[in-house]
Amino acid sequence: MKTHHSFADVANKDSKDSKVKGNVIGIDLGTTNSCVAIMEGKSPKVLENAEGMRTTPSVVAFTKDNDRLVGMPAKRQAVTNPQNTFYATKRLIGRKFGDEEVKKEMQSVSFKIVKATNGDAWVEANGKMYSPSQIGAFVLVKMKETAENYYGTPVKNAVVTVPAYFNDSQRQATKDAGQIAGLNVLRVVNEPTAAALAYGLEKTNDKVIAVYDLGGGTFDISILEMQSNVFEVRSTNGDTFLGGEDFDNALLKHLVAEFKKESGIDVTKDPQAMQRLREAAEKAKCELSSAAQTDINLPYLTMDSSGPKHMNYKLSRSQFENLVAHLIKRTIDPCKKAIKDADVKPQDINEVILVGGMTRMPKVQQTVQELFGKSPNKSVNPDEAVAIGAAIQGGVLAGDVTDLLLLDVTPLSLGIETLGGVFTKLINRNTTIPTKKSQVFSTAADGQTQVEIKVHQGEREMALDNKLLGRFNLIGIPPAPRGVPQIEVTFDIDANGIVHVSARDRGTGKEQQIVIQSSGGLSKDDIENMVRAAEKYAADDKKRREVVEEVNRVESILHDTETKMEEFKNQLPQDEYQKLKEGSNKLREKLSNKDTESLQSIKESADEFQRQSLRLFEMAYKKMQSDREGNQSQSSSSSSSTSETSTEEGQQQQDKEKQENKQ
């Protein structure tokens, strides 16, 4: 049975949030790429980053000097620094080191995945450990800075998206990432739901839509009903470990095998060669979405005793499709489950919206068409739709977008472990959120004075087979025969899909509460320490960036001045020219001592040098102009006499020709 909230209930809940001061940005924190969007009035706008790109690679690297790089600068240096370049860490967020998915990821990434003291999967660079939430935070800081550069003012509030099939630990860990980045995460929105908002913002007609979202690391399918600006999710399903990264890895494995067959060399032991192959695999995958064949050409991939070894390999689209057929097939079952849970037939679905870079692959589009019986709708930008939807939801929370209501669902069932290790569900999957549900349980043994409540999330019958979110004890129950005490367990899921659980002994009124923390996750202190470190880093980064920018400015001034000095050499008095040359040398010396010289001192010297050079060049330019004018007046008088002569000669020539014609 599905709980329907009245428009008023949810609208009132959102209006509490809507007293938001300042701008609200929408961020799609993706596995491979991230994107930030804002609302300008009633229209969403995707922002370009410092490199002029609308999406930013979700890549973070640490150089040997321990400088932190984020986005394209980090991705560019991955080949020379594969061990300290982190990518696709969203696949580790909120996961335990012992999880099967983590073991699988360890075999394919170039960096070190380590076990944190709380049992979570963390990463390591230059001997320092980082939680996936921290790596996510570094990317979020870049998105935050992109928005701040656009607005020219600090930004605090954000709506951040997550895969719809993320469990509670993964959602909480994403929220933690926002906090570490110095953001107030107003809402965590499911990615396919955000994409539906982007698609349906201007649409008024009622329809049922499916959002098929195959991104860099995760797959989601959601079925929604759109009715006069109410977006209601009917069902959702997915796979949080299926995406473009797996397609890349399948091709990478194939290329490694082909190279070994051809050269006898196993390149898996060579991190730099593997990084080059990984990048070549990603490039080939993208090219095969529009071309029937592509060449993978990698000179000097590695070497052995006989010399350097190159790779030259032709890959056809059909070959690639065969390599990844099993991955595309894995999207079919979640789609069928979502259709069944939504209680619709494929023909009842009016539109299928494609989201995520992998949906550009023709074979994926063909699979969707066969599954839903209709051509997919490609009207939304697969890379930007999710961020746009997040910005729209931000607009709703800020009160800028009115008359729009979003009713989302919880993706997985929630419950507790009961006698015999059975999983007893309290809230079924696809229940509209926010929601609250209570159930009364009792003791399993005579005289029991405490009970342990184990909270699980999943769909399996036995608790052990589902994800353990957390546990807590309710103590001080008066001894009584088993089955007599009445213990009321309440589950409360907020609009972010984050779970709050409480247990109360009805006899004594004693209560125990728990907000599930990310998979053993980050404690409040951990997060605060990381926030402080991020703030300190931000100040250092800002200083370093200011120095770099000033150095670039000064070098540009020097280059322009020295070029002009050569150009105007003959027009400048010799002593002035010499003075300028000395000034240029002094400024260069200051630049070479930039680590000890103050930024202000460099700036002042550069400004003074620029003023001096401009004054001189103005003088030289005026001299050149007057020289040119003098030359012009001379040349015009000589040219007029020349033209008179030429006219006479022309007349004589014509008379001569006429005479000859008569003869």
Describe the structure.
This protein has 663 residues and is of the alpha+beta class. The protein folds into four domains: 7-242 and 330-409, Nucleotidyltransferase, domain 5; 245-326, ATPase, substrate binding domain, subdomain 4 (Actin, Chain A, domain 4), CATH 3.90.640.10; 414-522, Substrate Binding Domain Of DNAk, Chain A, domain 1 (Sandwich), CATH 2.60.34.10; 525-634, Substrate Binding Domain Of Dnak, Chain:A, Domain 2. It contains 15 helices and 28 strands. Helix 7 (244-263) packs across helix 9 and helix 14 (574-592) packs across helix 15 (599-662). Keywords: ATP-binding, Nucleotide-binding. Pfam families: HSP70. Belongs to the heat shock protein 70 family.
Task: Note the main attributes of this structure.
single chain; 663 residues; alpha+beta; Nucleotidyltransferase, domain 5; Actin, Chain A, domain 4; Substrate Binding Domain Of DNAk, Chain A, domain 1; 4 domains; six-stranded mixed β-sheet; globular; disordered N terminus; unfolded protein binding; Hsp_70_fam; Chaperone_DnaK
- Structural class label: alpha+beta
How many DSSP helices? 15
* CATH top-level class of the largest domain: Alpha Beta
Q: Tell me the CATH topology of the largest domain.
A: Nucleotidyltransferase, domain 5
- Mean pLDDT score: 88
Share of residues in helices: 40-55%
Architecture of the largest domain, CATH level 2?
Answer: 2-Layer Sandwich
The domain tally reads 4
Cα-atom Rg, whole angstroms?
33 Å
How many beta-strand runs? 28
The N- and C-terminal alpha carbons lie at a distance of 117 Å
Could you give me the name of the CATH homologous superfamily of the largest domain? ATPase, nucleotide binding domain
Largest sheet: 6 strands, mixed
Keywords: ATP-binding, Nucleotide-binding
Pfam family, one: HSP70
Family: Belongs to the heat shock protein 70 family.
GO molecular function: ATP binding; ATP-dependent protein folding chaperone; unfolded protein binding
